[in-house]
Amino acid sequence: MALRNLYNDGRFQFIEESLNDVTKNFINSQLRNVTHAPTARRWTIQDKAFALSLYKRSPKLYRYLKIHFQLPSISVLKKVLSSVPFNCGLIKPVMDYLKLQSEQMDELDKCCTLIFDEVSLASGLYYDSNKQTIFGYEDLGFLGRSRGTANHALVFMIRGIKTNYKMPVAFFFTKNSIATDKLKQIIIHIIEEIQSVGFNIVATVCDQGSTNRAAITALTKEHTDEKPSQYHFVVNNQKIVIIFDVPHLLKNTRNALQSCNIEFQSNKVAKFKYIEQAFQIDRTERTYRCLPKLKESFFNSRDSFLKMKVKVAAQQLSNSVAAAIETFCSNTSMPAEALFTAEFVSLIDTLFDSLNGSSVYSQSGKKFRSALSNDSPHIEFWSNLLPKFSEWKLFDKETGKLHTAYKFIEGWQISIRAVMVLWSNLKEKGFKYLLLRTLNQDPLENLFGQIRQHGITNTNPTCYQFIAALKTVIINNFGVALSKQGNCEEDYCKSVGDFSQFLQNYAAEEIDTEETSDSSILDSSEAEIISGEASAYVAGYFLNKINIPDCSLCKQSLFADDASGKHLFVMFKEVDDVTRLKYAHDQIINLVDTIHTSLYHFLDQNGHLTNIENRFKTYLKEKSLIHVNYLCTEHNCLDQIIDKCVRINLYKYVRDQKVLKRVSDGHSKKLKKFKAL
C-alpha cells in the first residue's frame, strides 16, 4: 500500500534524479521481469554485467540473492563469459573496441603509456570443451604454447596521459619468468598493434625486474634512431621513452638502505639504523608522537608482505622522518652523524614527490607535489640531481665492501631523463602540463587486486580463473575495488568508454535455463577408475548415452551376449533382478581402455596443443589403435562412443593431474618442515 501511495504522489521521480545508473538499471530489471516465468525473462547487457560481478564475488551469495530477486541464471552468466573471446595475446574484442573509440577521440587523448607486469598464479589445469583446449599451460599467444605449467600471468595495459583512462590489451601465461627475447618481441608486437588502432604509445612503464631491464636494454640497442640512448627506443618512427615504476624505485631505495649504508655525497653517509632509532625514541620518550604513522611492524625485515607495501617505504623515507631525526639531533638524543641520514631521507622524499604529483597545483606546501609544466621547479631540480647520482655508493653494513647489485640508482637516472624527454615531446604536441602520477603502474596493480577479490578473495587464481575474472572486471568497466588494503593509491582511471555496450556484438540474447556442468559426469562413479570391472560399467554408460538404432547387427557389435567376469561390477550395481544397465561387448570395453591409455600418453606430450580432441582422434587413426569388428555397414556408432569417451577422459586427466599436484605439494611441504627441524 505504501508503494502505491508513493507512486500516486509522484514521488518516484527521485529514482531518476538521485540514484546512480547501476541502481536504476537493477530496479528496472526487477520491475520488467517480476511477472515473467524464469524462461521468459530477458536481460540487458548491463543486467548481465552487474549480475556477473555479483556471482564472481561470491557464487554462494549470488544463489541466495537469486531466491529474493529476479537475476539471470548462472548458465546465462557463463554464456556471457564464453561468448566473449579472450585468448592469450592481444585481446581481440578490446582491440576492436579501441579502434572504434580512437576514431572519436582527440589526438592528445590518444597519448598513453604501455604498462606491463606479472602476477603470480596457482598452477592448475582446466579443460574447456568448447575450445578443445586445456588451460594452465604456458601460452605466449602469437609465440605459441608449450608443455610448461604456467604460474604467472604477464599483463599489458594502456593508460591515458591527458585523459584518465585505462584498458588491459593483452595477457600471457608464463612458467616462472618469461625469457628476455620473447618479452622483447611481445613489447614490439603490442606497440605496433596499439599504433594500428589509432593510439599513440609514448612510454613504457614497468618495474626493475631483471627480465624487464634486459628486454628494455635490448630494445634501446636494436630499435633506435640516429641518437640512441638508455631511456628510449623507436617503433615505426615513434619515440617511446622508458620509465621504471616510481613507487617500485622508492621501495628499492628503501630496501638498499636497509642492507647497505649509502654514501650520497663525499663523506655523507645515510644509515637505516638512524631511521629506526628515531622511531624508537619517538615511541618511548614522548607524550605526543612526531611519527604516528610509523609502526613497529614496519621494521620487521622478515615480513615480506609489509616490505612490498609502498606506503611503508614512503613513510620510512618521508619528510616527517627527516624532521624527527633533525629534532632528535638538536636535543642530542641522536648523534650528529644522523643528520646525513635526515638529509638523504629528505632528498628521496622530494625526489618521490617530483615524480608522483597527482594535481595541477602543489599540495600541503610541497612545491614538487604538482604537475610538471614550464613554470614548475621540476626540471631544474632533476638537472641538478642527475650528475650527483654517479657519486652514490653503497657499502655493505656488515663487511663494508662496495655493493653493486642494486639497480635503483640507474633506475632513477633513466626514469628522470625519460620524463624530461617525454615532457619535451608532449609540449610540442600541445600539452600544457603533465600529471606525473599517470606515469606509474598503479592501474595495473589495482587490476590485479580486483581480480584477486573474485571468488571470495581468490588471492591465487589459476589460469582459467584469471581469464574469467579479467573478463568480468573489463565487462563491468572495472567497477569499484572493494578492498582498502591494496598496495597502491586509487588511480581514478575509468574504462575507455562503456565496454559493456560494445559486448552486444558478442553476447546474443540468452534464455534462462538450469545450470549444467560439462564435467558433471566426473562426480559419478563411472569416471572414478577406468580399469578392470569398472571399465565395463563405464563402457555401458557410454552406450546408454549414445543414439543406437533398432538394428540387430549394431546391437550384436555393441552389447555382450552374456554377462562375463568383466561385468561383475555392473551386475552388483543392479538394484533388483530387472536388467536396467547396459552390458558392453568385450571389444567396446577394450576400446574404452585403449582410448584411456592412449589419451593419457598423448596428453603427457601434447596436452598444451589446441583443438586437442580432433588432434587425438587423428592420432588414433594414424596409429591404427581402434580394433573393433563392427558388423553393420549402414550404421556406425563408434564415432559417438569415441567422442564421449575422449571428452570424459580429458576431464578425468585434468582432475588426475590436480590430485597428483596436491600430493606432490603435500610431500614438498612436509619435506620443508623436516629440513627445518
Automatic annotation (TrEMBL):
Domain Transposable element P transposase-like RNase H C-terminal: 439-469
Annotated ranges, domain THAP9-like helix-turn-helix: 13-79
InterPro entries: THAP9-like_HTH, TNP-like_GBD, TNP-like_RNaseH_C, TNP-like_RNaseH_N
Every Transposable element P transposase-like GTP-binding insertion domain range: 248-366
Pfam families: TNP-like_GBD (PF21788), TNP-like_RNaseH_C (PF21789), TNP-like_RNaseH_N (PF21787), Tnp_P_element (PF12017)
Domain Transposable element P transposase-like RNase H: 87-219
Identification of the protein by name: THAP-type domain-containing protein
